[in-house]
Design brief:
The protein has 245 residues and is mostly beta strands. The protein has a single domain, classed as Coagulation Factor XIII, Chain A, domain 1 (Distorted Sandwich), CATH 2.70.50. Helix content is 9%, strand content 27%. It is built from three helices and eleven strands; from the N terminus they run H-E-E-H-E-E-E-E-E-E-H-E-E-E. Strand 1 and strand 2 form a beta hairpin.
């Protein structure tokens, strides 16, 4: 039996990417670093979540125990500010010479950011929160490039804006990569996410439409179950539309 190129390539990609995972571990506010591991609930293990019905899809944790001690910092962010997240393969940060840093190039897929308003950004529980999407970078069909490709080109950094119209207060910022290299069946897509603890100052009075995690994604979503080893004319990023002020 003759195997197609995707059928040949997929096992090779999977075998070569066993340790090709990644962690969101630093936040910049208007270009200023807030410190390595500061204000971010980072795990000890850099592996993915694959079950979209699990509470682990919220802020990681669970099968990926949190790095100790968990940061109790809350990062001040003016509404309308430019945020930059930084991802790397290991908790030590950038590792020159590591081909899997910031993430293996095979892990193509979208990069997404959500916010959820909370009473206290350091609260332990993250279940039941109401999330709204503020950023997504999926597929550019003209050259078949992905948000992850741009993250790699920017050495692990992703830049986006905090909406200027949302109310002041404490929030969790959920930043996520969905790797689609094995997403031809479910479970197969790999979800990498961490939550940063922020205090938004200024702002407005918009009440965004929200979703729940788990619940925002389904295993049958076209952005979760997909064969990326073909020329795609479009890609639907999972979850709701990005908030527009």
């Amino acid at each position: 039996m003759r195997l197609s190129l995707p059928e040949i390539a997929l096992p090779v990609l999977l075998a070569s990417s066993v340790s090709a995972h990644t962690i969101f571990q630093q936040l910049y506010v208007n270009g200023a670093s807030q410190g390595h591991l500061t204000g971010i609930r980072v795990p000890d293990y850099d592996g993915p979540i694959t079950d979209v019905t699990s509470n682990d899809i919220i802020c990681n944790g669970g099968i990926n125990p949190y790095h100790q001690p968990v940061s109790n910092a809350i990062i001040s962010v003016p509404a309308g500010a430019t945020l930059t997240t930084e991802w790397h393969h290991t908790l030590s940060g950038a590792t020159p010479g590591d081909a899997a840093d910031p993430i293996d190039a095979s892990h193509k897929g979208p990069v997404i950011a959500y916010l959820a308003k909370v009473n206290n950004a350091t609260q332990t529980s993250v279940t039941g929160l109401k999330w709204f999407k503020i950023y997504e970078d999926g597929l550019t069909a003209s050259d078949q490039s992905w948000g992850v490709d741009r993250l790699i080109a920017n050495k692990g950094k992703v830049t986006f804006k905090i909406p200027s119209c949302i109310p002041a207060g404490q929030y969790l910022l959920r930043h996520e990569i969905i790797a689609l290299h094995a997403a031809g069946s479910y479970p197969g897509a790999q979800f990498y996410m961490e939550c940063a603890q922020i205090q938004i100052t200024g702002g407005g009075s918009t009440s965004p439409a929200t979703v729940n995690f788990p619940g925002a994604y389904s295993g049958s979503d076209p952005g979760v179950k997909i064969n990326i080893y073909q020329t795609l004319s479009s890609y639907t990023v999972p979850g709701p539309a990005v908030l527009s002020c």
